[in-house]
Every structure is written in structure tokens, then in C-alpha cells.
Amino acid sequence: MVYALPASKKNAIYLFLGMKKIAKYLLVLSFLLSSNIAFAQKSIRLNAGWEFLKQDLGGIWEAVRPVGLGNPESVPLWENVNLPHCVNATDAVDPDVNYYQGPAWYRTKLKIENPYQNGRTILHFEGAGQKTEVYVYTTKVATHVGGYDEWTVDITDAVAAFQKEEVYQKQFKGQVPVSIRTDNSRDLEMIPSDLSDFNVYGGIYRYLNLVYVPPLSVDKMFAKAEVDAQGKLGKLNVSGRFYNPTGLKNATIHLKLIDPKGKVVAQQEKKINNLNGDTELWSLEVSKPLLWSTDKPLQYRLQYDLVSSTGSYKSEDKIGFRNINFVEKGPFNLNGNRLLLRGTHRHEDHAGVAAAMSEEMIRTEMQMMKDMGVNFIRLGHYQQSRIVLNLCDSLGILVWEEIPWCRGGLGGETYKQQTRNMLTNMIDQHYNHPSIIIWGLGNENDWPGDFAEFDKEKIRTFMKELNGRSHKLDSSRYTAIRRCDFCADIVDVYSPSIWAGWYRGAYTDYKKVSEDEFSKVKRFLHVEWGGDSHAMRHSENPDKALSKIKIGDSADERAGDASLFGGAARISKDGDWSESYITNLIDWHLKEQENMPWLSGSAYWPFKDFSTPVRPDNPVPYMNQKGVVERDFTKKEAYYVFQSYWTDKPMVHIYGHSWPVRWGDEGEEKMVKVYANCTEAEIFLNGKSFGIKKRNSQDFPAAGLRWNLPFLKGENTVKVIAKKGKVIVTDEIRFNYQTEKWTKPTKMTLTKINEEADVATLEVKLFDEAGIQCLDAINWINFGLMGDGKLIDDLGTSSGSRKVQAYNGRAIIKVKLNKGKSVASVKSDGIPTVFITL
Q: Where is the DUF4982 domain (predicted)?
């Protein structure tokens, strides 16, 4: 958001420019731009200076009363935190507790210095979960329900009233106390359901901004940019919604459209006599606009200046001209040409911070997706940060964004009204993003459990209402849902649940099942497919469990399929959860998608492992491990399979970078797979060439880039040299080859394998009675520590959990030594506990 510079400051700058050289005035201008007071059009992120309490208070007075050290008023104790902050930063993946769901408090003191005469002071929340109350001193100024949409609180009047009180100067020394209560308690009459396969987090886990605006400002600007499929004629319709708490009657708005090259395309000045409600401001045609696409995401800038008797308000929005078309019974077209949607999913979740991802983390994640070849993303299962949407616009990633009506059934009027509000807010707030092509209305709404009644017709009726509301608010985009067959005919685009090779059937069933589902609906898009992989777990025979699976059976996920207990044979329960298996599953899906000309696209579930309360028994407890990267951005092998199909920049990757020991018989040839987008590759084992192979995407696995090699007992080195045109890329791995056979694990070793920057890395290995490492052991490992150090755990990663299943007979964890002494331990049922002094 950009706000206007006061006229007095403008005059000062102009005078200065006339007197000094460029080098000097740029320095001063830079200073003015950095000053929140002098240049108040910049919203201020309130990141520092917060205190946090992970429990409820008896009332708001407990947050602001005078406190004497050591007195009863100092209890309960608050901790210092920075925003964004998630209540469940670590307990979401603590293997020993249910994550906290309840009230929590934040408090700070603000120095309010609004530069505008009679200006408004606003708190702008980019997202806080799930119910929020805001107080200025002891006055409640706002409440909000919903953890994912943006909202604002005008604190102007409450601040003015407080500043008249004696405590303003006496106790708070000219600062304004602001206290915020968040609450993510379980509530059946809220969305999303606590049955959802993700945590319903608490806290101020997105950025909170202090914003100063003049008495009249723009609340939202709606810019509808359209273009025909040939790209010949663009149309732009602009309407505005104003924030006018003092009831001004007249204003003038100046609008300017600037193309991606910086050229002013058109300008408009309009006098406004009605500043209430949404107002039509500008309608124009643009001949042969520069188009937004996934390869060239070109954006125009819509600048506007709202001028009234109280001053000027300036800002700008970015827009893009593009034509989208989900062909009935056919593929997806962007700007008149078929585009296969190559997608994934995103949850707002990261190791150590949970939902409170920083802008830097978000940028890293979205760039990793683009580098993997993604051109489409489904944001599951809630409205996400404006930072995410801005990056999708600038990187060229098309978006399905949805509301969190997820599982549980349908509640009462309170439940429905929250759902309506969140749909309206999502569309209003993200209307201008060219990346968005679909508004999602729900996920797995066929999943009962929160209410005694589960009435399909009532769900259909409400889904129809939401579908109509979405089209009324935005007629330019499609609606969609995933996995609710009895509502499939209501929305524009439908995704059934197809999990070939994981929850049902074999991955070789994928194409046939997709064709069957495609025939049932008007527009088909396959979102959610894939399977779990325990990072650093590998297998010499990954497809072994497929022998138990009924081939050709339906691949639709059904109730109970996600459970690790009971029911029919399925890979999700009976497979080895190895990276080796998942790379094969992904490889098969991607090679099939290249020969499905009717397919609009698909989205792998998800990009990154994320925490969930409904999977306590997974190899990393409370983690959904279907990501192609771990919760801390560590790439799994699957990342490179996608790159080999979806990217153009030459790349090559030998499978097995995190596989330190392979096994088999002496003299046995073992398969080495290479994932590359190159034309050909040559493999070398211990310096000897084993030939060149050409890439053929339909030659499964690894597009024909696979070799059977005779490993030597002990250490081996494999190197590949790949070519794409004149470009040469290489990769290399080293590993040991074990030929000794093992029996049941009976003992462990615990070793410090690295120490750097006061952090030690510990590795546990499992052995049988003969001292041979058990390379297929999946025993539960429990790390412990006593002394000065601290386990670096509760990260939700394979190497960042104190309770974790072994991967190939080993497991890793790190310890912050704190420059002291500690004793680490490892416990596993049926095996003697071992210790190491650090």
C-alpha cells in the first residue's frame, strides 16, 4: 500500500531540488523515504517490541495494569517475541502432546504520529488465527472471525480518547498500549473443520501493519482486465471502494495506466459525488496489450491519486491482461494456446515457525517451485498471504485459491455466514491478481463428522449459493471444488480424488482412471495426487508392495484409506514410504501426462511436507510427508524428477544423494537412475564409462536414463555427464556397497559425525548381533539430552524430530551445545539404550 506525501513535505523537496546537485538531493530524498513520519504513505510493519502469553487472561485489565517486579501483578509471565508469530510454532509437531488450541495474547506499545490533519490511524492485519479481539488500553475496538483473510481496525478514536487519560503520560510515557487476543479453540461452527488434514493455527502469524491515511482514502480498487484469445483487444474496467468515515461528499480521482515498459497508455480524471459503496471510475480499451503469461508475466501498473478538500491519497495496483479458457471436455488454454497446467500445492507451514513464515521464506519457497517447473498452484485450503499472490503474479504461476470449507459437513447459520464472508473477502482482496484463474469453494465436503446430520441436499443448496455468489462477485474466473462427487455438477471445474498407486490401486492405473473421471464432468482438472516419502529412506526393491495391490481397481480415495491400520491392501499402509517408490510413482504420472492431449492439467500434493494433527503415527509424527521438499526446504529426490520433465534449463541428477549405503550380492548389477532434461547422458562407475543413453520420456523409469552397474564391495563413485545442445552438466555421488546380510536389529551406536558453529550432528545406527548394519530397519528412534545443550527438534523433519522412524537403519539429529557439556541418549524398544557425552 502506498499513501500520499503531505503537501508541506512535497514543497520542501522541490525547494531543495532547486538548490542542490543531484547527488546531494538523492541522499536527502532517501532519508525522507525512510522516515515513517515524514513519508507516511508507507505502512509500517509492526514486527518488533511484542510480548506474548500462551494462555488466557482474566480480562484486558491484566494486560495493561501497573506491574511491580516481584509482585503478584507480574504473573503470568510474558515472553518477548517478534511478528509474525504462531502460537503453535513448535508444539504442532511435538510427538508427545496435542497441539495447543486456545486463547493467547499479544501486547505492545505504539508511538502514534499521524502526519495527516484529521487523518485515520489503522491496524492492518494480513492474517491472524482464528478469532481475534483488538484492544486500545482497556477499550475493545474490533473483533474478527477467520484466520486467513485480511482485515483492518481503525483505532483513531480510541487512541484519541486514551491520550486524554492521565495514564497515557504517567504510566505509558506517551505511548499507546495495544493488546490482541487470538483464539484457535476447537469450534464446530467455524471453518475449517478440526477434522482437516492440517493444523488450525493460532496467533498473529502474518504481518501486522500500522497505517496512516488521510480522512478520505481508497479502501479497494477493482481492476477487471480482459483480452480476446487473439490478444488484439484489451478492456479495462475500474471501480473503487472508498474509506470515508467523516462523510466527505466530493473528490476527484486521477487514474493512469502504465504498460510493462513504463509507457503511459492512458489517463483519466473523474469527479466523484458519491463516495459511498462501489463506484465505477474508468472504462477503456487497450489495443494489442502486452499479455501476461506463465513464461512472460508482464504486468501493467494502475496508478491513482484521490484528491479531496482534506488532502491527497496516492497508490497503485498491478494488473495483467490474459485470456483463460477451460475448454469443455478438453484442455486449458491461456491466451488462445493450450497450456498443460503443471502444478503443486502450498500450505502455510514451515519448520520452527509453523504458519509464521517470513517474506524471505515465502519468496524462497515460491522461487523453488518455479525452478522446479511449476506453472500452476492450488493454495490449499484457505486464502493465503498477499505476498504469495504477488509472487505468483511476478513469477508466472497460475492460481486456484479457495476458502477453508473443508471436511466435517455443514453447520448452522453462524457457520454459513463465516463461509460467505470469507469467500467475499478472498475475492475482493485478490480480485486484481492476473495469476488467479479459479475460486475454490470447498474441499472434501463429502466428509461428515462434525454434526449429527449429514444432508447432501443441504450441502448442495449451500454450494449452489456460494457458486452464485462467486460468479456475481467475479464473472471473469471459474469456480471449482475437489472431492465431493454429489456437487460435481454445480461448479465450473471439478477435481475428483484420484490417488493411483497410493490410497488405491497401482500407479499404472492412473491414465485409465483419469479418462473415466474425465468423461463424467464438463471440465476436469486433477488436483491432489502422489504419496508420502520418509526423507532419506531408500529401497532396492521399491515396487515390492505393488504385488499385494489389485491392479485396475478404482484409484479413488475412500473413507479410511489414509489410516495406517486395517482395511484393504494399499501402498499408503503396506508400502515402504521410501523416496525410491515415490520417484517411480511421480515418474509414471509425468510421462503419462505428456500423452493426454485432453488433460487440462494436474497438481501434485503438496510441494512441501506440512504438519497435521490427524497423522500422529507417521514416520515423522504429526507430519504429512507427501512433499517433494521437507518442511525446512531440504529437497527430496522427487524434486529432480519434476525438474527433468518440466524445466528447460539443462539439469542432471543421479538418484541417491542421501543414500549412503546400498546393498546386494557381490557381482550383482544394481540399477542407477538419472533424472535429466538433457538429450543424452553418459554414466561412469569408479572412473569407467558404462555407455551413453538417449533420453526418451516414454521409456520408464527415468526416461531411459538408467544403467545396471556392478558395484564394488565398499566405496563406489558414480558420475554422469549429460548434454543438451552445446551445454554440458554433471553430477556425482559416493556411497558404500554392503554385501553382508543382516538379521534383526539388537543394538545401536550413537556417534557425533560433525560439529560446526557450536552445533553437533549425531547419528544413530542399528546393527544385528553380528555387528552388521540393518539397512532396512525402520525402528522407532527416541533421542534424549541432559546437560547444557538443547536438541534441535520439533521441526517436523526427518533429521529434526526427537521421535522418528529410522531410515535405512539410521537416524540423525542436531544438538545446540551452548558451549557446555551434555549427555545424549537414544532409546528404541527392545534394544539397549545408548549414550554419548558431548
A: 667-728
